[in-house]
Amino acid sequence: MSDNFLKFRDIASHDIQAVVDRASEMKAGALSDALAGRSVAILFEKPSLRTKLSFWVGTQKLGGNPIYFGPEEVGLGKREPVSDVAHVMSRMSEIVVIRTFLQSTIEEFASNASVPVINALTDQEHPCQALADILTITEQFGSVAGAKVAFIGDGNNVALSLGYAVVGLGGQLTIASPDGYKLSNDSLDGVNGYGEQLGGRVNQVTSPLEAVVDADIVYTDVWTSMGQETEAAERLVAFAGYQVNSEILDQASKNVKFMHDLPAHPGEEISEGLLYDPRSIAFDQAENRLWAQAALMEKLV
């Protein structure tokens, strides 16, 4: 594995299962003092609930000291150059967790840091979410290998990281997005190249109904992410017909489970009440951020 976790493919495909297995052990009660006497700097330029809470609690469970910096405190590249912040934080903490707008920002930070850097969300990827996702799928089905996952919605950072995670363990992912919102061909080629030796594959379609045929998992995300607010009206039009609801789930496998990385917008990408449908495992998925990230931090140090 790479010294950093900036994009999902920083974990070699043959190392993914070990991180997932360790997360399962921690969730079952296994203890670790991997961060005893160490500090984790958590630097966010965007608001957060699950990511902040899971890294904070995960650091404490490993015996470490979390230190949080909110959007107004540092000003990466504005109040101070990214490189300067990286050098300072490297001298006072053992891991830096960053949620920022641009992948280029975290890449620049990591190139100037001397401690592991973890991507807690950028415009290109959300790799920690994907780790939690495959832990959740493993809990439900025993393995990601051979699982059929349907992602309905924007071919965004969540979809891309999910693609790497699923195919890296030999699963199949079908993404249904309207034209103009699909993964780029380069991204698709990269994902499929990462998982081809294990038989994993990502396919893209336009029809949600086509995507969910025989799906074990139906997954969606918000139509308008943070930083895209000016596109909200346009996206509401583009994604009309892409709502995940009971009728969509009924077209999938009889044992289908529903996933959402949250926060959700009922009435848009999901129907009202769907998070509480018996088939929903969205809150299991949310909790698993804690265990997946704790296992990741242990591995990095």
Compact overview of the structure:
With 301 residues, the protein is α/β, with parallel strands linked by helices. The protein is 40% helix and 14% strand.
Oligomer: single chain
- The average pLDDT value, as a whole number, equals 96
CATH topology of the largest domain: Rossmann fold
Helix and strand composition category: alpha/beta
Low-confidence stretches: none
Biggest sheet overview: 5 strands, parallel
Helix content: 25-40%
Q: Based on CA inertia axes, which overall geometry fits? A: globular
CATH architecture of the largest domain: 3-Layer(aba) Sandwich
- Spatial strand order of the main sheet: 7-6-5-8-9
**Strand-residue proportion:** 5-15%
In CATH terms, the superfamily of the largest domain is Aspartate/ornithine carbamoyltransferase
How widely separated are the two ends?
12 Å
Tally of individual domains: 2
Treating each run of at least 4 consecutive H or I residues as one helix, how many helices? 11
Primary descriptors:
single chain, 301 residues, alpha/beta, Rossmann fold, 2 domains, five-stranded parallel β-sheet, 40% helix
